[in-house]
Amino acid sequence: MKLQTLQALIFIEEVGSLRAAAQLLHQSQPALSAAIQQLEEELKAPLLVRTKRGVTLTPFGQAFMKHARLIVSESRRAHEEISQLRGDWEGHITFAASPAVALGALPHALASFSHEYPGVTVNVRDGLYPAVSPQLRDGTLDFALTAAHKHDLDADLEAQALLVSNVVIVAQSQHPLARATRLAELQDCRWAFSSAPRGPGAIIRDAFARHGLPEPKLGLVCESFLALPGIVAHSDLMTTMPRTLFLRNAFKDQLCSVPIEDELPSPTIYVLRRHDVSLTPAAAGLIRWIQHHTLNHHLSVAA
């Protein structure tokens, strides 16, 4: 089982084409096809279905992919860790961040990190728990900065508290209930969740339950922090979002924070990662910068 073939399989899944995957690997298409065939013979199962429109994974291929991704990511981490321990500060870090961090301390943390480790490439993605869980498990993400209910975390994930997020209820400024002061007034509203109902983007469910109200009416799930403010600004939907996102979005003039007096949950943002996978020294260094600037940011806000 060759590492290059596993990487090729990942590329094939991403681009849906043997030819495009071969180009990414600087291989000929016949050579790549032969390598995949050899892997299929080794596993005694077909991994790909070839059609006129491209290539898709068989059920065997889909089951194998989580192993392929983990093997490739762990190999990369192992090489980068040893290289960084030797003093060669190069490599890659990929992580997901919630808007509470991305719009607060993260830009300063990344600037400090890049100054200290200019040879390390950083890839930042949007993401909340539980949507980030598969990517943490297969090694696509080194870690995630996301709100979560710690008691509800999957057993294979480790959570380190980073900050407590201030959440507000948001609606378009002309919404009939834009000046509501009690959650009970919002029972008939439709809601936009920014994560699956189990995740922090559905925190209004916790608020309703805490005040003895029926389940809020789900109108839309939008896991794009960029799209959510615009969607709410042009609809009758209500949503919850970190105050930092409410204050720093392109549609702020068309939105309002609903002045609810009932207490709302204040979710904790965690540094989330697999407990059985060690971070590279560079990834650990980036987390330290994030923690440092998060503390400084909140001290400056408090002052």
How far is the first residue's CA from the last residue's CA?
Answer: 57 Å
Query: Helix and strand string, N-terminal first?
Result: HHHEEHEHHEHEEEEHEHEHEEH
Helix content: 40-55%
What is the count of β-strands? 12
Which parts are unreliable, with pLDDT below 50 for 5 consecutive residues or more? none
Structural class of the helices, strands and pairings? Answer: alpha/beta
Main pleated-sheet profile:
5 strands, mixed
Give the integer mean of the pLDDT values.
92
Overall geometric form:
globular
Summarize the structure in words:
Helices cover 40% and strands 21% of the residues. The protein contains 11 helices and 12 strands. Strands 4-3-5-12-6 form a 5-stranded mixed β-sheet. Strands 9-8-10-7-11 form a 5-stranded mixed β-sheet. The longest helix has 27 residues, at 59-85.
Helix/strand layout:
Elements (H helix, E strand, L loop, with lengths): L2 H13 L2 H7 L4 H15 L4 E4 L2 E4 L1 H27 L5 E7 L1 H4 L3 H11 L3 E7 L6 H5 L5 E5 L9 E8 L2 E6 L17 E4 L10 H7 L6 E5 L6 H6 L4 E5 H5 L7 E3 L10 E7 L6 H22 L1
Parallel strand pairs: 3-4, 3-5, 8-9, 8-10
Antiparallel strand pairs: 1-2, 5-12, 6-12, 7-10, 7-11
Keywords:
single chain, 303 residues, alpha/beta, 5-stranded mixed β-sheet, 11 helices, globular
